[in-house]
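Lecture 7 notes: from sequence to structure.
We start with the chain below.
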Amino acid sequence: MRTLTLRIWILVWLTMVWVLLWGSVSAANVLSGLVVALAITLLLPLPSVPVQGRLHPLSLMWLVLNVAWWLAQSSIQVAWLAIRPGRPPRSAVLRGHLALKSDLVLALAVNIMNLTPGTIVLEIDQSRRLVYVHVLDVGNERAVEQFYRQVAQLERLLIAAFERDSEWRPAASESEEVS
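Predicted structure tokens for the same chain:
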């Protein structure tokens, strides 16, 4: 039942995106959007991603609030860097470690980092859970330490929201599911 609900939601979501791209709601846009959504899901299926752990709504809300704060704060910092007089900011590629168990939660962490103005993830070492992030302003040691504190806080928030050790049960591998 869960799989069917998810597939229907994906079709509805892709159809809505199609209608939004065309800019008007009409029977032709909805129908063509549904055809495109069916073609995408049938001809270009994504591999299944195991969902592990449990969602904790209060921890998720705290994660969302923190990310919103980081986005606002970094947007102001990047805007200031753009208009302030002087030399361009010093940037660097920094390596962060995220002790996250789930690939899905690791992908969420990378997306949060990419959405944050002034940072972009350049590479992910999936097996060692390392991310290499280009950081816009690392002109002093305090800025570098701030980056590492934020990565550690993001890791703690994601674990609290999705991967608590007391509830963690790894998903069965494909070979175990077939048996």
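Points to note: Residues 23 and 124 are 36 Å apart (CA to CA). The first strand starts at residue 92 and ends at 97.
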